[in-house]
Amino acid sequence: MSETGRDAFTSLFSPGILEVCENVSGLFGDESFIETIGGPNSEHFLIMDKYDEFITCLRDGCSAVELGAKLRDLFIIMQVHFFSEEMLMKCSNYPGHDSHKRHHRYFVTTIEGLINSKASPKDAMERLIVFFPHWLLGHILTADREYEEFNKLLPSA
Ligand SMILES: [Fe+2]
Ligand SMILES: [Fe+2]
């Protein structure tokens, strides 16, 4: 990111928001992190990659139309992933299916609430920037991992 872009970004958002963006982007250079979330071909990686595209677009001062398109892509890919994960859980009679589905709904509802928020666009965007990666990474590393552990115990077909 150029110094001009950095200055423009930090003049728009509260202190610390740029660090959140840079920390998330930095994770993409960390192979062990990528393996932790399922590897470079996983849906989790794809979601985080789309989030990175979204914040990069925001930091680089792209147009509102481009930013809206990036956010829409991110939201769609995330919902497709949640749906496929829930279907797999249902098919394997995972006992945590209902609660896991509620976690997904909470996330989707929160993101929808921020997108449609009547608060100032700046406040809503800052909350989105911070909430999205923190909730998602926490979820992948705990709830999704519990399902992986359950799956490992299933007899292979
Ligand atoms: Fe999940
Ligand atoms: Fe997941």
Question: Could you walk me through the main structural features you see in this protein, from its secondary elements to its overall organization?
Answer:
With 157 residues, this protein is mainly alpha-helical. It has one domain (3-153): Four Helix Bundle (Hemerythrin (Met), subunit A), CATH 1.20.120. The protein is 78% helix and 0% strand. It contains 7 helices and no strands. The longest helix has 32 residues, at 121-152. The radius of gyration is 17 Å and the shape is globular. The model has no long low-confidence stretch (mean pLDDT 90). Bound molecules: fe (ii) ion (FE2) (2 copies). One fe (ii) ion (FE2) binds next to helix 5 and helix 7.
Main pleated sheet: none
Average predicted confidence as pLDDT: 90
- Just give the CATH class: Mainly Alpha
C-alpha end-to-end distance:
49 Å
The amount of helix comes to over 70%
What is the C-alpha radius of gyration, as a whole number of Å?
A: 17 Å
Number of strands: 0
Bound molecules: fe (ii) ion
Low-confidence stretches: none
Series of H and E elements: HHHHHHH
Oligomer: single chain
CATH architecture: Up-down Bundle
What would you call the shape?
globular
Number of separate structural domains: 1
What fraction of the residues are assigned to beta strands by DSSP? Answer: under 5%
Structural class per helix/strand content?
A: mainly alpha
Q: Note the total helix count.
A: 7
Kindly identify the CATH topology: Four Helix Bundle (Hemerythrin (Met), subunit A)
